Amino acid sequence: MPGELKKKPSLGMSLVPVAVLIVALFYTIVVLEGSGHIPLIFGAAVAALIAGISLKMPWPDIQKGLTGGIVTALPAILILIVVGLLIGVWIASGVVPVMIFYGLKILAPGYFLVATALTCALISLATGSSWSTAATVGLAMMGVGQALGIPAGMTAGAVISGSYFGDKMSPLSDTTNLAPAVAGTQLFTHIRHMVYTTVPALILALVIFTIIGIVRPASGSVETADYLLMLSTLSETFNLTPWLLIAPGLVLFLVWKKTPALPALVVGVAAGAVLLLIFQRVPGAGWAVNIGAVVESLYTGYVSETGVATIDELLTRGGLSYMLDTIALIIVALAFGGIMEASGMLERLAAAILTLAKNTGSLISVTIFSCFGMNILASDQYLAIIVPGRMYRTAYLKRNLHPKNLSRALEDSATLTSPLIPWNTCGAYMSGVLGVSCFTYLPFAFLNLASPLISMFYGFTGITIQKIDDDPDSLVGISDDEIPERGSGIH
User: Fold this and answer.
1) Which contacts qualify for 468-471: CB closer than 8 Å, 24 or more apart?
2) Measured in whole angstroms, how far is the alpha carbon of residue 195 from the centre of its chain?
């Protein structure tokens, strides 16, 4: 731990790096349409200058703060690397295409909105990406919905609800890996804990979509030209067989057996490689060519060249190189959070906000509203996870609340509210891709609206809220010194 500071930061001083970061992020992302990497580096530099000059913090302590936050995320970074390998080989082997194919086959006019949400949920679970799902299958569903006479906002709401369910629950998703890394718990522990809020939210969304389908029945056929083209292209490009589902089934079995994330995903990679060699091998080519295809899919990912834009955009992804940009963003974001934490500025900001947190319910509510606020101010869901996560981590630990309560609250708010804000990167992307304004689909994004409310309800009632002593083995990167008041938590 860094040494004692000679001077404690004031609230105004602590706000300076955050304000600089928000302005830099807004200008870079909204105006320049760039990424958040450089603003985060700039924000970390400003925080380091304030710590060194104003707080008289020695450079070794500043450096320890910069690297300390990154070190805690190394397990998640390793998982993200393996996830990149998994995505590439699962697409090349036909595992992801067969899940997309079966997902599209469940569509029918009578329950189109329900089927749309379920299809997008299945595909985003398989790919770990709400963006790819919305831009491909989601876009196709918008065309089908238009043909059936369904308002665009309703169809978009179903696409958003399904896409973000899969994104939030998939071990292949970057935010799903980031939240437990920031909070201090294991990936699959985090996913299992999210079931309690996300599955009821999905069920509620499906019930409402079913009622809408009954009250406002669709007319026409789902078999639009784009829809049929996607199905035929998938079946012609890949050897689709139910045997390909062995790979995700094996990973799910290992998750059920509580196998740690990294070895479980490595087994998934190996299974995908074997399936690729069995079902998608190049006819007449030798083993060297086919093994080369496996290696290429692991490093550079799969490149789809079908000539069908929706399929090529959905399936051209994965590989180690695919994850490097996300990993770099996480590293610089955690460097910023680390220096803010080591300098005491993050603690000062948290203390000011935590005056509102009198019990567990209000603490979770403060977390959710803080993430929502960061989505509004910083226009970036990664920052909406990392900054509140680092701010409130100690508060949860002091109250003997398991970090998975924090990681779940981060995702229930930061991940799910990001597409509801027009100027957030997620909101701008979804609105642009689907051709519907955020405020038009917002009333129908039932999963995204319900999940934060369910999370707060659990906080005030104590339902599914777990203490550290209930599951001490799933803590990651947390020392006993970080739990100074263990066992004296509020209820």
Assistant:
1) 468/397, 468/400, 468/401, 468/402, 468/403, 469/400, 470/402, 471/189, 471/402, 471/404
2) 14
Give residue 489's pLDDT.
41
Q: Are 156 and 139 in contact (CB under 8 A)?
A: no
Report yes or no: 378 and 337 within 8 Å, Cβ to Cβ.
no
In whole angstroms, give the CA distance from residue 390 to residue 39. 18
Q: Identify the CA nearest to 85 among candidates 293, 236, 300.
A: 300
Burial class (CB within 10 angstroms; exposed 0-12, middle 13-18, buried 19+) of 306: middle
What is the CA angle 203-208-211, rounded to 5? 125
Q: Residue 44's pLDDT band (boundaries 50, 70, 90)?
A: confident
| 445 neighbors 358 (Cβ within 8 angstroms) | no
Every domain of the chain and the residues it spans: 75-321
Tell me the C-alpha distance between 160 and 442, whole Å: 9
Of 101-110, 181-190, 300-309, 341-350, least confident by mean pLDDT is: 101-110
> Of 193-197, 211-215, 346-350, which has the strongest mean pLDDT?
193-197
4 close to 61: Cβ distance less than 8 angstroms: no
> If residue 274 lies in a helix (H) or strand (E), which one and from where to where?
helix 261-279
